[in-house]
Amino acid sequence: xxxxxxxxxxxxxxxxxxxxxxxxxxxxxxxxxxxxxxxxxxxxxxxxxxxxxxxxxxxxxxxxxxxxxxxxxxxxxxxxxxxxxxxxxxxxxxxxxxxxxxxxxxxxxxxxxxxxxxxxxxxxxxxxxxxxxxxxxxxxxxxxxxxxxxxxxxxxxxxxxxxxxxxxxxxxxxxxxxxxxxxxxxxxxxxxxxxxxxxxxxxxxxxxxxxxxxxxxxxxxxxxxxxxxxxxxxxxxxxxxxxxxxxxxxxxxxxxxxxxxxxxxxxxxxxxxxxxxxxxxxxxxxxxxxxxxxxxxxxxx
Length: 301
Prior knowledge:
alpha/beta, eight-stranded parallel beta barrel
């Protein structure tokens, strides 16, 4: 059976925690957080939109709320019990992977193993420049980061000599803390990278139903050709809450659907937002929605 998750961007950490508590009670599968470190003033980079439509017309605007997803997810982990904690996506090439390893392991253990590490290579060149990270090497840097992260999560000692990072023998954690890697991107190179290196895939933007089917079909073809028969979830954002259309996605093999949180978490007060999200969960048949969950969300006595 497929899943229904939520994707959030441009919200404050406080609002994300409020959203997560309600979504956790209702049985949404995951909360995926987008991120940027900063907004370069007057930037000219354009988000790659191959095979997709952008939900946010301007992705990093002067009034866009930017957050650290791991700080937010640590707060969310402390007040929830089952919702998965995803990033869609985290630009790991902007940071040293040993530091990212330390942070992700901490959130993974705090949450009881609920992290989904969604990774993208990045597109905002001015952001890379501000952080003194070469933009042109972001793809190879991302792959090397993933190699180091998986070794860090293994709990064993290791050393590394690579194109971008070199260090002597280290151990990041005294025990294994495996974390699924969810690679994003819709371009042919991104799909090939996801099929080769990922444990799952997350679509960029909001593909149409036909685009989503084509992307997922191509990923499955690439996985078959590589001889990899392991389960490979494909998370796709959708722009509708129509149960009939969502069923059509699933009938076409696109099973793990993600809704934009700002289309459901609406209203002037937290209580109104909770009511609206609860109504949407009932309408969508969110797995885990029950009388107890609805009561916890403040809808029934």
